[in-house]
Amino acid sequence: MNHELSQYLRVERLPHIWCPGCGNGIVIGALLRAIHGQGLAKDEVVIVSGIGCSSRATGYLDFNTIHTTHGRALAFATGIKFARPDLTVIVLMGDGDAAAIGGNHFIHAARRNIDLKALLFNNNIYGMTGGQASPLTPQGKMATTAPYGVVERNFNLARLAQGAG
User: Fold this and answer.
1) Could you tell me if 66 and 49 are in contact, meaning their C-beta atoms sit under 8 angstroms apart?
2) Assigned fold of 6-164
3) Which of 27, 35, 110, 149 has the most Cβ atoms closer than 10 angstroms to its Cβ?
4) What does each of the 165 residues of the chain score in pLDDT, given as a tens digit?
């Protein structure tokens, strides 16, 4: 692979495991173009992920990376940023990771206004475990845990972050 962005990839781990048609690769490409465009050195960047489809990205990215426990990516990232405020800390989270088990960390990270970059990959379901509804699954949409459609309204995480911060 001879592309200017390949320097940021662990090419020996490719091809990726994402499903055909999945947008995760597009998001990762945009992230790498942004890092490259900012002129950041690889050792100035830490990428933190939790659990879920999107969080598999840290295995493919050739930066300082940490693949954490479900819902705790923001908590780990907060500790990294407090210990090393000079680093650019980027958090990759899925909708389940950010809005469900990690929802409390999402609220408090927004409240603290920590200098983190958080990317939310929203596929509206728990994709790796069978398609269960997540807190961001739109009302009325079917999922394996909601065969007649999700009853509850979904979260608007942008408004939640705004309200918390």
Assistant:
1) yes
2) Rossmann fold (3.40.50)
3) 35
4) 568 999 999 999 888 988 888 899 999 999 999 999 999 999 999 999 998 888 899 999 999 999 999 999 999 999 999 999 999 999 999 998 899 999 999 999 999 999 999 999 999 988 888 899 999 999 999 999 999 999 999 999 999 999 998
